[in-house]
Hints:
alpha+beta, eight-stranded mixed sheet, three-stranded antiparallel sheet, 16 helices, 21% strand, globular
Amino acid sequence: MVNFASKIPNESLVDVHGHLNKSPEPIAKATQKDYELIASKIFVVAYSIPLPVQMEDLSRPAAVIKAQKKRLEELSKHIEELHAKHSAEELAKSPLKEQLEVLQKDKASAQECAKVNQDQRLDNRILDMRTPASQGIFRLQSAVAQLFREYMYSQDFVEIHTPKLIGCASEGGANVFQVKYFDRSAFLAQSPQLYKQMAVTSDLERVFEVGPVFRAEKSFTRRHLTEFMGLDIEMAFHDHYHEVLDVLEGMFIYLFHGLETRFASEIEAVKQQYPFEPLVYKPIVRVNFKEAVQMLKDAGVEMDPLGDLSTPQEIRLGELVKEKYHTDIYILDKFPANARPFYTMPDPTDANYSNSYDIFLRGQEICSGAQRIHDADLLTKRALAKGVVPETIKDYIESFRYGAPPHGGAGIGLERVVMLFLGLKNIRKTSMFPRDPQRLCP
């Protein structure tokens, strides 16, 4: 049986019959450390072909790879210094010859750990997903959606399902995928925005959706995808659009607390390969956009006070908020009107700004939202000002002529929430089969 078992390829699926024995000491390299299986029979259910990449390499902790890189850089520097200071003839003689040989030998041995880059992981996604860290990531992704739903139901929200093939660009602009739809053109939905608002006007009052979002943006960053999962909410409010922020704050606190208390083993599995600092999510502070501009200015960062934040500005502002308020999450309120979509309600006290907000986690945006315009005439005017042809969204505009309540909402990126909660550096780690401008397979 030992000879038979030794010939079974790695990652083959087997059935093992036997009995468990208490291990006299913990088994370091096993997930079950306290017991060992004494096998009596082994059956191969499915053989694996030779692996294109080894599981040990896919599972290797990032700290090990980082330490190896540092060691290689140090040895390479020493070798370069020897070549710079001495001629070839000198290096061929003792003691420099032996010194150089030792450095070269050390460099060769320091390269024993193979590094698997992100593209290699995605090209072999099924194997990569078998690592404990990836298992943890995608179980946590499932948990985020579960906890989001739990909280929304607890707040009397109704889950809806809106179309993803639509007749107009829901957000306006050019970042939309156009597809052939029989004898005319259609678009992949940039968000459920128009339909979730129409649902609110239909007297559902509080709605949410978990569904795909498509953005035709040629962004090659570590935090952008052309398709991702959106967690969307929309709700009527009575006195102030900050009622929406109250719901969002409650949801994020419920979500992060739930992850920490109910999914600790999954978090630990990720930490073993990708260590990260625990998230500080209390308090969730609200920062006015004008205050944020001043905070950046005081820190030596200049920006257009009526413009949107760039990625470096977002990250720097997150650092400043952490220093001042001691939290990793905050709400940035009252964005400039020019930086928001046509359906965003202008600030009634200052037309340069709007009743809109973003939520940032570890210095990066995870959520964007606003009070929406619920007056059909003002909505038409704002659409024209933003270059959106009102005729293409006629059904949407007309829905506000039958008595529409003041309302607001938000859209949250699922993959980005998971990425930033876990302190990961690339959103492709939290998308099972990511789509970006260069990747359409697997």
